[in-house]
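FORM 7B: Structural annotation worksheet

SECTION A. Query
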Amino acid sequence: MRPTRWMTLLWLAPISLLAGCTMYLAQGKVDFHETAGSEGIGKVIVETRNGSIDVRCDTNARQVDIQGSKFASGVSQEDARALAEKIQIEVRRESGPPQSLRIVAKFPEADVRNRGASFRIVVPPTVSLELVTCNGEVTVAGTRREVRVESSNDRIRISDVQGNVYARTSNGEVVASAIAGNVDVSSSNGNIQIQRAGRDRVKAETSNGRIRAIEIRGDAMVRSSNGQIELRVVSLPDRPTVKAVTTNGDVFVELPDTVNANLRMHTSNGQVHGNLKNATVKDFESSQNSHQATLNAGGGSVEIESCNGSVTLQTSPATRPAGSQEAPVK
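SECTION B. Predicted structure
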């Protein structure tokens, strides 16, 4: 009798646990569409969570066009849709400078159900952008002003921007291309790709991922804890600062042969390669795992470092875009 009694108790336990657990398997979605005047607006701010933000700039836009979807989970589609309806989209002007248009998804009281709001927005190219979401992709294209983006768990893609770009995501890739201003981007767990970017400087940092930055202008600082680095710079200031550092991975750097800098290359476990064609090299010192030298007139700083990987520096004619040849990075 005793074994039968224990088996009965064991079966009752999971049944009682399930009885107190509500499963929200149904999904509900509500679309929305609003417009707002853009006269006098210098910045557009968008804030949401659990949803994407897609902003496109249109030279013909005379207002801000706001579309998107609110969504939620529930015990039924009717229940989920009712909860999605409770998410409010608030659009309001705020005094400056600059005068701003703030677009916010406001959520009701917290519960265990999943809720979110995604945006598709068209704005004039004369506004700066500040975009914040968690658990959602962010895409921006075409603004003449500054862009600031923050997302916690998804990719960020920014292109064709004339102003500066600042982007942060904790778990996702960052892709930036055709950026005329300075670039400062980071991810904690994701690759970073930058192409045709920078005015005075480009900064990129990730803790677990590869960094590929090509056709870069100005000072460059790139760092990864676990990932390969490829950095190609086409123009530099007279006394540049270039730093490419990773903990685990190869590092390849290409610079104009006119670079004026004090060079330091080092790896703990790997090879050091230098192809310094057409650059004047002085005070050269070399060991198995490091190179030091003065390039041309010196004065600037170039540091290339890896703990577990090879490091390579190549100089190319300043009149030829860097990156026209493949780097020896596997």
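SECTION C. Observations
The helical segments are 2-19, 77-85. Residues 179-321 form one domain.

SECTION D. Sign-off
Analyst initials: ____
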